Amino acid sequence: MADLRAAPDASAASATLADRPPSGTEPTGTRRRRPGGLGHRSPLRPWLLLAPGLVVLGVLLLWPLVRVVLLSLQDYGLRQIASGESNWVGLQNYVDILGDSYLWTTVLPNTVLFALACVVLTVVLGTAVALFLNTLGGFWRGVGATAIMVAWAVPAITGTYVWVWIFDPLNGLVASVLEGVGAIEPGTVNWFTERLSFYAIATLNVVHHGFPFVAITVLAGLMTIPHELHEAAKVDGASAWRRFWAITAPILRPVFAVVTILSTIWDFKVFTQIYLMPGGNGGNKDVFNLGVWSYIESFAQGKYGMGSAIAVLLTLILLGITLVYMRTLFKEEEL
């Protein structure tokens, strides 16, 4: 009888022990927050992770930009470099630049029209090449894409010297061909002295170097378009031109927007292709763009304040284009 009376007490004790939480734990409702705030996400944690990269960007980009802006507000030349003194002139450099007819009649038209021509030809040629590659099989498409990427991999310096040799007035390929057919006399035509022909050669150079990026980007977009759309359009009797404007162009409008704005940014600040051509390094003032003009004023003339002001103007133009680019990216789904 004693054993039977003890059984309920033992069962109750077992139930009580089973209901207790394991040793070292607490109920969920009464869990204490760990010291130091580790139990919640700190708002400073993302900034701490970004801090190394932001410091590097600040040192490499922000400080030089601030330095250029400060120099643009000074009459800074070789004397100031030697003495370490500052000769502040405020916005006088900008007044001189904006009041100079050379900016409006030569430099700015060279920069804007050259960039516009390069962008249009680069996008058109790159799109045409992408459409051609899209019609090929997988193997030949890879071969063609690899071949055109060679033009993009060639450094701008090397490509510029190749085009300078092609149009060399004495021993160039074009001069030799035209001489062979009796079109010109040897050494009588120099394409680098005239403003229009100079920029025509520079445009060929820039377009040749830039169209592979557009071609590969547009090709990637073309490969995402379902074949059924074009097949249905063919059944309806639509021509290739009609299918491009009715199907391909609307679908790839975000791609075209991105490659166009990126090409505009790159072509506005072209320097190497202009400076390395004969006359572009200071011998022919009629072919300067904003980048070359800033370099010549700074390092050839020793007017670092004036050159910095020109660089700031170019930066403001590129900043405006960049803002358009960022706005386009944010509205990509709406295009």
Automatic annotation (TrEMBL):
Enumerate the InterPro entries for this protein: MetI-like, MetI-like_sf, UgpAE/MalFG_permease
Q: Composition bias, kind Low complexity: at what positions? A: 1-28
**Matching Gene3D superfamilies, A to Z?**
MetI-like
Q: Which residues form the ABC transmembrane type-1 domain?
A: 108-325
Q: Where is this region: Disordered?
A: 1-38
Q: Which residues cross the membrane?
A: 47-66, 112-133, 145-166, 198-223, 244-266, 304-326
Give the UniProt record's GO annotations in the biological process aspect: transmembrane transport
Per the record, membrane topology reads: Multi-pass membrane protein
PROSITE patterns in UniProt: ABC_TM1 (PS50928)
Q: Which UniProt keywords apply?
A: Cell membrane, Membrane, Transmembrane, Transmembrane helix, Transport
Q: Which GO terms describe its cellular component?
A: plasma membrane
The cellular location(s) given in this protein's UniProt record come to:
Cell membrane
Q: Which family does the entry's similarity section mention?
A: Belongs to the binding-protein-dependent transport system permease family.
Q: What is this protein called in UniProt?
A: Sugar ABC transporter permease
